[in-house]
């Protein structure tokens, strides 16, 4: 998929915010199918977001071949999991793990957008992509809540990953934090697509 096509999908996805809001009376298989489709759109958009983010951060982030995927940042949820453990997750636990991750990403993406508004206030494309991605995550969280409720296990409160005093950082750390958030979000949405591909098989339309 080309970067321009991925960006076009992001714009289309932004216009569908009201469409993907879950109908809480829908059958479970319908909710899962809707969420699977949403996750696939978000996966396409995640590559464009990461590439656009890197292009506006200067060296070394914008250098050709830059890759620091092993970087981690406290509080940002990692998607890595052993295959057998992932494959044997219960339906509730599988959805719950997604809910916990995207609750954290909703906060971190707001922080990254705030940072970029300070560092790159004229990069409207990037700021809009961060805003739309967060809106998509909020829609995904609504779907996940509906699915967990349909499974008889509504989500419990999630510990807030960010405290006010922990968000202070210098310019370089803000760029690193944003990179980790965008890259790890991409890894998580890849995992979510796999999760819901499996769930769609278990609960066919």
Automatic annotation (TrEMBL):
<keyword id="KW-0732">Signal</keyword>
<dbReference type="InterPro" id="IPR010681">
    <property type="entry name" value="PRF/CT"/>
</dbReference>
<comment type="similarity">
    <text>Belongs to the IL-6 superfamily.</text>
</comment>
<dbReference type="InterPro" id="IPR009079">
    <property type="entry name" value="4_helix_cytokine-like_core"/>
</dbReference>
<keyword id="KW-0217">Developmental protein</keyword>
<keyword id="KW-0202">Cytokine</keyword>
<protein>
    <recommendedName>
        <fullName>Cardiotrophin-2</fullName>
    </recommendedName>
</protein>
<dbReference type="GO" id="GO:0005615">
    <property type="term" value="C:extracellular space"/>
</dbReference>
<dbReference type="GO" id="GO:0007166">
    <property type="term" value="P:cell surface receptor signaling pathway"/>
</dbReference>
<dbReference type="GO" id="GO:0005125">
    <property type="term" value="F:cytokine activity"/>
</dbReference>
<feature type="signal peptide">
    <location>
        <begin position="1"/>
        <end position="22"/>
    </location>
</feature>
<dbReference type="Pfam" id="PF06875">
    <property type="entry name" value="PRF"/>
</dbReference>
<keyword id="KW-0964">Secreted</keyword>
<keyword id="KW-0325">Glycoprotein</keyword>
